[in-house]
Amino acid sequence: MNDKELLEKLKSFDTPSVTNVVATYPEDREHCLGLYHPWNGNWYTDSTCKCMFPELGRLAGHVVTVTFGLPDTITRRPTFADLYRVINETPKPVIVAIRQNLPENLKRKNGLCGGNMMTAFRSLGVVGVVSDGPSRDLDEVRPMGIQYMLTGVCAGHGPFVIEEINTPVSICGMDVAPGEIIHMDENGAVKFPAAYLGQVVSLCEKLQAYEIKKQQKLASTSDPELLAKILVDQYK
User: Fold this and answer.
1) How many CB atoms are located within 10 Å of the residue 132 CB?
2) For residue 143, is the peptide bond before it cis, meaning its omega torsion is within 30 degrees of 0?
């Protein structure tokens, strides 16, 4: 399968399953790649990141990052045309990771992305946005089929500028950079290097088959001792 087919296949698994394969159980070498420290590595989003449109289901895509901030005296800044060119040149589908580099009192009231920005993003092959701040226009964005993963929503914002494009960013506890894949659903988002895409898909298939058998066993008895024995074996 090519990358686009692998990303489509990856959507058949939920984000918790992808995290299990990427790094959650490093001692389980049969099902887990152990790419990051399970607790100390910043490879998935924390509870501040909320899924705005859970009905859209699971998404996966190549990352483009962008940092927005307040206007300042620097006149030579990246433009939206620069951002759109980068998105256009990135393999599809694309997930845009947006860092909102604002003081916290302003960040909480910054409805950054909206209907116009998301319409342009959709035209360029973007399927989702994950950001460490709020955005707006849920009613306009929902029918576009673009997922919003945000800290919340807000009706307005003030002037802002693009500070950086395709540099490493931290989004709600997840450090993400160009050349990585993001998978996300209503549980949150997880990232991993694009070079591991095929292995992640293969191990998700393997783990899914294993967990189906495990859960069938767990559902077949009400014996506390037997349930404990079945569960202990879950990730060994």
Assistant:
1) 23
2) no
